[in-house]
Amino acid sequence: MKLAKRLQQIEPFHVMDLLARAQTMQQQGQDVIHLEVGEPDFPSPDAVIQAGINALNHGQTHYTGATGLPQLKQKIAQFYQSRYGEQVEPERIVITPGASGALQLITSLIMDPDETLLLTDPGYPCNRHFLANINADGQLIQTKAEDGFHLTPEQVAEHWQTSTVGALVATPSNPTGALMREEQLRSLHQAIRSKQGILLVDEIYHGLTYNGQAPYSAVNYGDDVFVINSFSKYFAMTGWRLGWLVAPKWAIKGIDKLAQNLFLAPNTPAQYAALDCFDANVIEELEIRKNAFSDRLGFLLPKLEALGFRIPAKPEGAFYIYADISGLNHKFSQDSMGFCHDLLEKKALAITPGVDFGHAQGNHFVRFAYTSDIPVLSNAIDRLSEYLQDTQISD
Ligand SMILES: Cc1ncc(COP(=O)(O)O)c(C=O)c1O
């Protein structure tokens, strides 16, 4: 049967092969450690789960408006005020099926076929696939470790073409966990504005930052900026499929039209459950978890460095460490996929190959997700250490 040509532009995740193998190993009784999973190990907060159950029990099983529950938009607007000191009109907020839904709505709104959006390499791989699905292009820009693997104003100037509509960046980033300083993001915005382009800022890992800096958001940078966020990560609600975007006012009518047609509405019980996310007791619990992530980072980072992994961009957020393996063992210097498969086979430790996040240097990198607690991470370090010793000997 015929498949649409654009499917050729959409790659599966390489890590899925690893996951399938890890599952088989587990079924055979092996104790596999999972540091490849990009979601919090914590369950959704109890109060949120109860609110979801209550919503179902009270018959909240019908469609809401396409852009979501007004009372949830209100809560999110209050959150921008309390957490960031930013005033956001609730009408600018659109509730979506995850950040994934937000990204699809925005790209469908602003991109025509064959137009391009600048993306970072390394970066979240689905971005270019959302674009391919609407016959537009993601132009991967190889970012530099010394820039924290972030897109710079100079790169915008260098790579901008007549077909370029704008740029999409994430801070903190997946896979690096690196944060953009506020001045960095502002100057990137200026560079894009000077080209009359549009800046998309994916703030999905906001809330999970460990450098003690006051949080800032791009929500009020101007009429040429869209912000993407989600209940998946900080709020530990990946499976509920709920996120949001903050759009300039001119864009809302178009987004509403698209949301009606593409999704009809975001998940209703999830929206009612999310109303409880901003309660003081829930935020308190989430902050305790954030501290646990911070402790894990503090544990894992020096241990990986001591084993010889180079971590060129300082991870300060999300729950990822992007580590360079090219100096470790010449056998794997050009093959992150081979490294990950071999590590899984020999030590039952699953991590993600860099080739899932970028073409430029993906083969030199692997991503560790610290979505397990410290005793498990410690066990993982022991296995890694043994693995490195064994492979050096067998070389
Ligand atoms: C940078 C980034 N953006 C967006 C998403 C999509 O998240 P969701 O659709 O669960 O909100 C992810 C998921 O891992 C991500 O890492």
Attribute tags:
3-stranded antiparallel β-sheet; single chain; 2 domains; alpha/beta; 7-stranded mixed β-sheet; 12 helices; 395 residues; Aspartate Aminotransferase, domain 1
Short description:
With 395 residues, this protein is of the alpha/beta class.
Chain-wise SSE layout:
Elements: H1 15-27, E1 33-34, H2 46-57, H3 70-84, E2 93-96, H4 98-110, E3 116-121, H5 126-132, E4 137-142, H6 153-159, E5 164-170, H7 182-193, E6 198-202, E7 225-230, E8 243-246, H8 249-262, H9 268-274, H10 280-306, E9 320-324, H11 336-347, E10 349-350, E11 352-353, E12 365-369, H12 374-394
Parallel strand pairs: 1-10, 3-4, 3-5, 5-6, 6-7
Antiparallel strand pairs: 2-8, 7-8, 9-12, 11-12
Helix pairs in contact: 2-9, 4-5, 4-8, 6-7, 10-12
Bound molecules: pyridoxal-5'-phosphate (PLP).
Please give a structural write-up.
The strands form three sheets. This protein has a seven-stranded mixed beta sheet, with helices on both faces. The longest helix has 27 residues. Helix 2 packs across helix 9 and helix 4 crosses helix 8. The chain has 395 residues and is an alpha/beta fold. The termini are far apart. The protein contains twelve helices and twelve strands. The site of pyridoxal-5'-phosphate (PLP) has 13 residues, from helix 4.
